[in-house]
Write a structure and sequence with these properties.
Elements (H helix, E strand, L loop, with lengths): L2 E5 L2 H11 L3 E5 L5 E2 L7 E2 L5 E2 L2 E2 L4 H13 L2 E4 L5 H14 L16 H8 L7 H28 L8 H19 L4 E10 L7 E8 L10 H11 L4 E13 L7 H12 L3 H13 L1 E3 L3 E3 L14 H15 L35 H4 L5 H17 L4 E12 L2 E12 L28 E13 L8 H10 L8 H10 L3 E4 L2 E4 L1 H13 L6 H15 L5 H22 L10 E6 L6 E7 L2 E5 L9 E3 L2 E6 L6 E6 L5 E5 L8 E2 L2 E6 L6 E5 L2 E4 L7 E3 L8
Parallel strand pairs: 1-2, 1-7
Antiparallel strand pairs: 3-6, 4-5, 8-9, 8-15, 9-14, 10-13, 10-15, 11-12, 13-14, 16-17, 18-19, 19-20, 20-21, 22-23, 23-24, 24-25, 26-27, 27-28, 28-29
Helix pairs in contact: 3-5, 5-16, 5-17, 6-14, 6-15, 8-12, 8-13, 9-12
Length: 698
């Protein structure tokens, strides 16, 4: 054997092996081969925080095989992922295989295509010790926090709890948002809309009351005020007093980075961050594509960078010109500025298709499911980023009636540009604009209807995975590789739960957050955590020593821990029980929701006198189409949500489809949602209707 190349996964090994051909053996380390011990802290605090790495349990045979292969090889190349974690795996491999750390045996692949692999192999380098030390510092910091804080929480709250740097800040953000929602006091206001049309025209448009005729902003606060305005407008002419026409450009969103990919996949596809990264990893490492064989379909997916290679831009523009025509090709090179607090992975490109001309339709012949959906999203976003702007003619009109001014705005697309392919989804509801009929200044319009509608100001929305990732990124908390595991961890620990795709703190999460705020304010402080990330970036760039960085943090943390022990001496924090609507049939008490080894369940608060427990089910508000009983949300043995009648086993109706608040227009029964339609499940009815845009009943 001439040359050995070690990567992380078998899929990656298979793809790279195809491009390297004879003379190379490509094998996988299956991720990390060494780590800190699982059963103890493994950090020698007294000796400069020296980590005590050991081989990961179960990998002894693999390590033996890697050593044997390395011994036989003329050259060994370490080709793990191009980030801190990948650098750490290579560093450990070099140490365990006896490879010199100053040897140029480290290769990285921005994309796993023939060109990408050949380019990577042509530019070997030494292991980047600074990059490894940044990973090592993060690992040591997280271990120190976890192994020092967790026992404190066990003693003061209950066993099995944990705390971490990034997860604690994430929980605080979610708890703070919940407190904002609870403290929110809705304020009443009224919208007054005039439905108007030009004289002699049947085209109608809506204008909204915004101010007095003198230009003073007006907020209608109650029904009496609304009615008074309606009365004063009776018989008044609605005259166009201002008419402004213009043009505007709408530019495409930049290609994806890790955080924006996770956000858009959440909004468009309903993917969790973890699900997105699993699919992206597969696309990067390689899949079998008809006519191309094994190949990586996207560039590396853990990146903060918006940079795109000139070659990729040229490939995208060539495809755009061929597919839509030269008018759709952006005439200049687009450059995008990152919005994240830091850009630690700027050595990479943005996430893009490795071969821009390889369309989703062609790829769909070979892959399905999550990978196919995600590839289409990544491909569309990247191609659109190299397309021309969308051009619009805009019009803004002011309409005076009596003492009041109404406004309407609209636009007409004169050139669709990138929107022919893709537009970014958003969490916020966009202001509605529609095309207006031709209007002229001083024109008197015909009033078709004057509508008043009561409204109330709304509290801030709970975080979704997408909006939480955006908040973490904007505040400089965590890094591309940490967003998905952070969210998974806070949910798995029971600190946060999903409520119809929104993230809601549990009573346990609120209790832990309150304790952390009191005793360890730095750990849950957004600014402090962001500064810690910047310090790790300094380690990566060689501007700071990793041991000193850890030491500065640990000394302050140790003092907080000692003080917390004194403050909490002899005290224990009780997590409040969450009351349910279920009444204990044995003693009549209102049952509470407990969390056990297998998840949540209902228990009688009268324990130990009353030891009644039962499964926790959620009332959906829907009714069974067979017997009229309540439709309850349940979970299968594998954790999948389904919906069944409360009368089981006497009534055996169940479905995977979610009941919705709408009722059947034919028979009045509960409707169920499946795909893009609502349907009635009552035998013999057959009613169904399409789901309108925005009608998701979440």
């Amino acid at each position: 054997m001439a040359k050995l190349v070690i990567v992380e996964s078998p899929a990656k090994a298979k793809t790279i092996g195809k491009y390297l051909g004879d003379g190379y053996e490509v094998t996988a380390s299956m991720g990390h081969i060494r780590d800190l011990p699982a059963s103890q802290m493994g950090i020698d605090v007294e000796h400069d925080y020296t980590p005590q790495y050991i081989s990961i349990k179960g990998k002894e045979k693999l390590i033996k095989e890697l050593k044997a292969a390395a011994k036989k090889a003329d050259e060994v190349f370490l080709a793990t992922d191009p980030d801190r974690e990948g650098e750490a795996i290579s560093w450990h491999l070099a140490n365990i295989l006896g490879l010199p750390l100053d040897a140029p045996d480290r290769v990285t692949f921005g994309e796993i295509t023939k060109k990408g692999v050949q380019e990577g192999m042509a530019h070997p380098r030494v292991i980047d010790t600074n990059l490894f030390n940044a990973q090592q510092a993060r690992r040591v910091l997280d271990r120190l926090v976890g192994y020092k804080l967790s026992p404190f929480l066990w003693r003061k709250v209950r066993r099995g709890l944990s705390a971490g740097r990034v997860q604690s800040v994430a929980v605080r953000l979610i708890v703070d948002r919940e407190k904002e929602i609870e403290a929110f006091q809705p304020e009443e206001y009224w919208n007054l809309d005039a439905l108007l049309s030009p004289p002699g025209s049947s085209r109608k448009f809506t204008a909204r009351l915004t101010s007095t005729a003198a230009g003073k902003k007006l907020t209608v606060k109650n029904g009496e005020q609304a009615e008074a305005i309606r009365t004063s407008l009776e018989g008044q002419d609605y005259t166009v007093t201002s008419l402004e026409k213009g043009t505007r450009k709408k530019v495409p969103a930049p290609p994806f980075i890790t955080s924006t990919l996770q956000q858009e996949a959440s909004r468009r596809l309903g993917f969790t961050a973890a699900r997105t990264m699993r699919a992206a990893q597969t696309l990067y490492e390689g899949v079998e594509v008809a006519g191309h064989g094994m190949m990586g379909l996207i560039t590396y997916m853990r990146t903060d960078s918006l940079r795109v290679s000139d070659e990729a831009v040229a490939g995208a523009k060539a495809y755009i010109g061929e597919r839509w025509g030269q008018d759709y090709v952006c005439a200049y090179k687009r450059t995008y500025k990152t919005k994240s607090a830091t850009a630690a992975q700027d050595a990479h490109e943005a996430i893009r298709p490795s071969v821009p001309s390889l369309t989703p339709d062609e790829v769909d012949k070979s892959i399905t499911g999550d990978t196919a959906k995600l590839y289409r999203l990544i491909w569309s976003r990247f191609i659109a980023s190299q397309m021309s702007d969308c051009l619009q003619d805009t019009v803004s009109v002011g309409i005076t009636a009596g003492d009041y001014l109404f406004r309407a705005s609209g636009y007409v697309v004169t050139f669709d540009g990138f929107t022919a392919l893709y537009e970014e989804a958003t969490d916020e509801k966009e202001k509605k604009e529609t095309a207006l009929p031709p209007l002229e200044k001083d024109q008197v319009l015909k009033l078709r209807e004057l509508k008043s509608e009561q409204k109330f100001t709304q509290p801030p929305a709970r975080y979704t995975e997408a909006s939480l990732i955006r908040a973490l990124e904007e505040n400089g908390i965590g890094r591309p590789s940490t967003y998905a595991p952070t969210i998974s961890t806070v949910i798995d620990r029971g600190y946060v739960e999903r409520d119809q795709k929104k993230l809601k703190p549990t009573l346990l999460g609120r209790t832990i957050n309150e304790l952390m705020m009191e005793q360890f304010p730095d750990i849950v402080d957004v600014g402090f955590s962001a500064e810690m990330e910047r310090n790790l970036d300094k380690v990566e760039s060689g501007q700071a020593d990793w041991r000193k960085t850890v030491d500065v943090f640990y000394k302050g943390f140790e003092q907080s821990l000692e003080q917390a022990e004194k403050n909490m001496e002899g005290k224990k924090v009780k997590v409040p029980d969450e009351e349910s609507d279920e009444i204990c049939e044995k003693c009549g008490r209102r049952m509470v929701i407990k969390t056990g080894r297998y998840g949540k369940f209902l228990a009688c608060p009268g324990f130990p006198e009353c030891q009644n427990t039962k499964r926790l089910v959620k009332d959906t508000g829907g009714r069974c189409p067979k017997c009229g009983g309540r439709m309850l949300q349940r979970r299968s043995a594998k954790g999948r949500v389904y919906y069944g009648c409360e009368g089981y086993p006497q009534c055996d109706f169940m479905t995977w489809d979610e009941p919705v608040p709408d009722t059947c227009e034919k028979c009045g029964a509960t409707l169920f949602k499946k795909g893009g339609k609502f349907y009635c499940a009552k035998e013999g009815c057959g009613f169904e209707k399409q789901v309108r845009k925005g009608e998701n009943h979440e």
